[in-house]
Amino acid sequence: MKKRLLSAFMALALCLTLLPAPALAAETAETNVAEVTIDGKTTQYTDIVAAFCGTIWAIAVQAVVPAVNANAAIIGALMVLTPGVALTMGVRDILNGDYLSGSIRLLDALLIAGSIAGGVVLGWIMARGLGVA
User: Fold this and answer.
1) How would you write 19-74 as a 3-class SS string?
2) What is the mean pLDDT of residues 86-109?
3) What is the pTM of this model?
4) N or C, which terminus of the chain has less Cβ within 10 Å?
C-alpha cells in the first residue's frame, strides 16, 4: 500500500511538472508568434520562460520528493516546446527547392531549440545558486 501511494504521488508530481510549459507557450493565430501573456502584457520570450518554469518546478518537486527524477520531468515538460513542425517544414522546403524558405525555417527551429536550452540552463543555475540542485 505504501509503494502504491508513493507511486501515485510521484505520478502526480511528474504530471504537475508538465503544466507550466504548455500553459505559457500559447501561439496566437493573428501573428503566428508564440507569446507569453503575464498580467495583460505580451512578452516574446515564450520558450525561455516556459523552459525556465518547467525546470524550476521539476527541481522544486525533486527537492520535496527525492524519488522524483528531475531530469526526466524536465525532458518530458520540454517535449511540448520542441520545434518539430518548423524543423520538418524546413527540411521539406529545402527538398522542394525553396532554399531560402527552408533555411529560414531551419534557423527558426535552431533559435527555438537554443531558447529552450537557455531557459533550462538558467533554471539549473538559479537552483544551484539557491542550493537546491
Assistant:
1) CHHHHHCEECCCCCCEEEEECCEEECCHHHHHHHHHHHHHHHHHHHCCCCCHHHHH
2) 91
3) 0.67
4) N
